[in-house]
Amino acid sequence: MDNIFYAVVVLYNQTINDSLTCNNLKKIINHNIKVIIADNSIIPTDNNKHCFDNDWVYVSMGGNLGLSKAYNRVLDIIDDNSGIVIWFDDDTNITQEYFDELEKKVRLNKSVDIFAPVIYGQDGKIYSPNEARFFKNKQLRKAKDVLNMKKFNAINSCTAVRLKVYKNYRYNEHIFLDQVDHNFFEDQRSYGRNFLKLNVVIHHNFSLKSKQKSSQQCWNRYKIMIPDFLIFCSKSKIRLFLGIIKVIGWGFREALNYHDIKFIWSCFSYGIICIKNKKLYAVNKLL
């Protein structure tokens, strides 16, 4: 029996017709794919109708509850322990080649639990998969480079996971958006999962790699990144200390980018406030 592939797209304030991922999924030829839309939108959309028209499953989150909760909600409604779930952002240039390669490798590699393609950013660098390191992950220079499987790490989008992985596992819902993928892969490495780099390339436009128009827009983004990152770091005191060091480093970087020295203090003080209040939660909505 062929595996069922559950292609999950998380939308935020975007219609299905405007989503690059959704439009590309409509073109994919594979009868074993079931598309699920997890809608985190806080503005009215007609995504429910579009899902009905395309015979897709629509899951309304009732507002922007974050990525982890959206993933967990979807996992709770999938009644299949033998299928494959594939996580997608709404702006991923997914291709037929990706699904053809994934289907082949899933069939030939029964012992592999998690699959990830090579993903290039708009700057021509490879961002996924990579080797996990605390301050800066080690990126591949070429798509054919070999990864240390004990340090295997990847981004959420285009990561395919056998559903048996989630039998006794759910995403950390205290992490709102950032570090969801890093935390997942760190956990899976500790469980001894088997990973595979797919022999296919995806080109992705990373919004975080594009400079924001103003320092205020950039700071709004950091107000989500900082608490998420510190949750990820909170597994030990030394790691949390190193996390604060990295947050301060972000402040220095953006102070130089925007010629605004206040960034350094803003990042440091916000990080300390998060820790002191023991409320390491991202804001309830993207700003």
UniProtKB/TrEMBL annotation:
Keyword set includes Transferase: yes
Keywords noted in UniProt: Transferase
Coiled-coil ranges (or none): none
InterPro entries assigned: Glyco_trans_2-like, Nucleotide-diphossugar_trans
Pfam families: Glycos_transf_2
All residue ranges annotated as the Glycosyltransferase 2-like domain in the record: 8-169
Signal sequence interval, chain numbering: none
Keyword Transferase: yes
GO-annotated molecular function: transferase activity
Name of this protein: Putative glycosyl transferase
Organism: Clostridium tyrobutyricum DIVETGP
Phylogenetic placement of the source organism: Bacteria, Bacillati, Bacillota, Clostridia, Eubacteriales
